[in-house]
Design a protein that fits this description.
The complex is a heterodimer. Chain A contains twelve helices and no strands. By secondary structure, chain A is mainly α. Helix content of chain B is about 35%, strand content about 25%. Chain B starts with 5 loop residues before the first strand and ends in a 7-residue tail after the last helix. In chain B, a hairpin with a 2-residue loop joins strand 5 and strand 6. Chain B has two domains: about 200 residues, P-loop containing nucleotide triphosphate hydrolases (Rossmann fold, 3-Layer(aba) Sandwich); about 70 residues, no CATH class. The chains are: A mainly alpha, B alpha/beta.
């Protein structure tokens, strides 16, 4: 038959050093060199810009003590629970809004206005409701991630190819079958995108709350190091946190990649 | 074999009425629009006999797709009655399998899982439904592509996946709405051969909605010509061409005569449709459907 199979382009060789890669490495090296020069120059207060060696030592120190892992666990747990609550809520509300024009007209504009509002302004209320401990941090993470998830789920539901719904109906799929076998898989991209955005803002919401008022968690450790003026330790924590955030984002991005969700 | 185009008046009862598997009785469908009532389908009646291949042909806007959705049970609010083997349709019916004009494969499922979809819905065990799916994949000639995703296939192959998926539900009536409209001419002809061969092999009762005359004449036992707005039955033409047919028949003289005859009917309707479109474009405030 006069038909061809589309062939995927060959995977890009990761090992070859392109000019872009070289430039990127050069930028990082230059920044590190500048940092080290600044640290050695003595222009700033001692320890505001600690030497790379001191930071490296602090990273090692940090990672070899259980205290850090405990607090990391607290923060990760808070974000996880926040994502679970906010994500489930966002998914359900988003499905309802996507399915019902009346509801979406009535409520969605509020969500659009509330969405970009900095959630940190609700933190005092959350402390009063849920206390200084992890409860208020979970609440902050939850309200942070709820909005991007609900909005992308609602939009995703409206963008489902209508013919797929007609196919399901023509084969007499029940409501539950329609949701599980057509709606959710058809919305996999907007859902995962929403979770990605949600993870980002949950991370921000939770850590910001921890640095404001808390007794556990990474944000608490960072602000503690700051108030003790232990700069190498503070930088060490920022670096580790930076790497972890990149890792988490890459993980969700991988989940969002076509290859792993085709089967969903 | 003597070949003579013969036509049956729409008022004359079909000789097949008695043993019809599908009867469409006095279907009337109106839509309320801001500019008044649009009569999409006006008193359309016909029957389809078991194993028959009937095509409904008409210009764009004659209510073909409305008819397709009514028969498929996806559209309510009409007057009249559709029955399948004596049973009146009130919604999607297990005996009717629909193939849609649009791209309708599930991009997140492999070819096998797409074809097994209707079997999955009725709770057939996994092993069994995969076996059944493979059978229909072979039938449409897609063996070797079982584990591919629709995104890796061409448009013609994806449409064959849709066809296999519908066939897998083993409908008594295959209902197709311009399934090849989005494909290029060569693919369309070859795919037409495939459909025709499957239809003959399975003795599959088929109702094809199309605006393509060649396609309709090549495949059908009878062709129902519809008028443009309101969509009425203009004529039913018996296609008395020998079977098995392939796309090679397109070049024959008898084939040409049928095409000319149907085009003569259709031309009038199509030009009315075109004038309507033009006047609407000139006077946007006028009677819009």
């Amino acid at each position: 038959m006069a038909e061809t199979v589309r062939v995927k382009p060959a995977a890009h060789s990761a090992l070859r050093l392109s000019p872009v890669t070289l430039l990127r490495v050069a930028i990082v090296l230059t920044l590190l060199a500048c940092w080290e020069l600044l640290a050695a120059s003595g222009w700033l207060y001692r320890d505001v810009v600690p030497s790379l060696l001191a930071i490296g030592g602090a990273v090692y120190e940090l990672l070899s003590h259980g205290e850090y892992y405990f607090n990391l666990g607290v923060t990760a747990g808070e974000i996880g629970v926040a994502l679970l609550i906010g994500g489930t809520g966002g998914l359900l509300v988003g499905l309802a809004l996507g399915a019902n024009r009346f509801l979406s007209k009535a409520f969605e504009s509020y969500l659009y206005y509330l969405g970009p509002t900095p959630k940190i302004i609700f933190f005092p209320i959350m402390i009063m409701w849920f206390g200084v401990g992890p409860g208020s941090k979970v609440a902050m993470g939850t309200i942070s991630c709820f909005f991007p998830i609900v909005l992308s789920v609602a939009a995703g539901m409206r963008q489902i190819d209508k013919v797929l719904i007609r196919v399901g109906k023509s084969f007499r799929a029940g409501t539950w079958q329609m949701v599980m076998k057509i709606y959710l898989p058809a919305m996999r991209h907007p859902i995962i995108n929403g979770v990605r955005l949600g993870l980002g803002v949950a991370l921000i919401g939770t850590l910001l709350a921890e640095t404001k008022l808390s007794n556990k968690g990474i944000g608490f450790l960072i602000i503690q190091a700051y108030s003790l003026f232990d700069m190498p330790r503070m930088y060490a924590m920022l670096i580790v946190l930076f790497v972890l955030s990149i890792g988490a984002n890459a993980l969700v991005g991988r989940l969002g990649g076509l290859d792993s969700i085709k089967r969903f | 074999m003597p070949i003579s185009p013969s036509t049956a008046d729409r008022a004359a009862p079909s000789r097949r009425t008695a043993d019809a598997i599908l009867t469409v009785g006095n279907i009337d469908m109106r839509f309320e629009t801001p500019d008044g009532t649009l009569v999409a389908v006006d008193d359309v009646s016909f029957t389809v006999a078991p194993g028959e291949f009937l095509s409904v042909i008409g210009p764009s806007g004659c209510g073909k797709s409305t008819l397709f959705n009514v028969i498929g049970g996806l559209l309510g609010g009409y007057q009249g009655r559709v029955t399948v083997a004596g049973e009146t349709i009130t919604g999607p019916h297990a005996s009717i399998g629909m193939v849609f004009q649009e791209e309708s494969t599930f991009p997140w499922r492999t070819v096998t899982d797409n074809v097994a979809f209707p079997l999955e819905l009725i709770g057939m065990p996994k092993q069994k439904r995969i076996e059944r799916a493979r059978h229909f994949i072979r039938l449409v000639g897609l063996d070797g592509f079982e584990n591919r995703y629709p995104g890796e296939l061409s448009g013609g192959m994806r449409q064959r996946v849709s066809l296999a998926r519908t066939l897998a539900s083993e409908p008594k009536i295959l209902l197709m709405d311009e399934p090849f409209a989005a494909l290029d001419e060569q693919t369309r002809l070859l795919l037409g051969d495939k459909v025709l061969q499957i239809q003959q092999d399975l003795k599959q009762t088929t109702l094809l909605i199309t605006h393509n005359i060649t396609e309709a004449v090549q495949m059908s036992d009878r062709i129902l010509v519809m008028t443009y707005r309101p969509g009425k039955v203009k004529r039913i033409v018996d296609i008395d061409l020998p079977r098995p047919r392939t796309s090679e028949i397109v070049g024959s003289e008898a084939f040409g005569r049928y095409v000319a005859q149907i085009w003569a009917d259709l031309r009038e309707e199509a030009s009315r449709g075109m004038q309507d479109d033009e006047s609407r474009a000139l006077h946007p405030g006028g009677a819009r459907p």
